Amino acid sequence: MDGAAGTAHRPLLASTGSELVVLAAADGALQLWDASDCTCQGVIGRHESFVTSLSASGHLAASSCSRDMRLWDLDRRVC
Question: Which of 28, 40, 61, 76 could be a cystine partner for 47, CB 3.0 to 4.6 Å?
Fold first, then answer.
């Protein structure tokens, strides 16, 4: 169990509108995956706690259990 409410964390996925998919792992890492061949393209960045929501539309918005929200540039892979 993890989190203030005692709920288990499940990984989150967000489509970028292309072949790329963002996976928010339980450790707060934001991984970029190529859906066409199922290969990890690397870690974009990391939150201090697990990610609670994702939204991808040109940029990636991610918020976490530690109440922070970040906007990521997927092309440059920076926050």
Answer: 28
Buried b (16+ CB within 10 A) or exposed e, 52-77: bebebeeebebbbbeeeebebebeee
On average, the pLDDT of the chain sits at: 85
| Confidence category of residue 1, pLDDT binned at 50, 70, 90 | very low
Which residue from 48, 63, 65, 54 is spatially nearest to 20, judged by alpha carbons? Answer: 54
CA proximity to 46, closest of 71, 20, 21, 27: 27
Per the listing, tokens 């066409």 go with 36
pLDDT score for 30: 94
- Summarize the confidence of residues 14-22 as an average pLDDT: 89
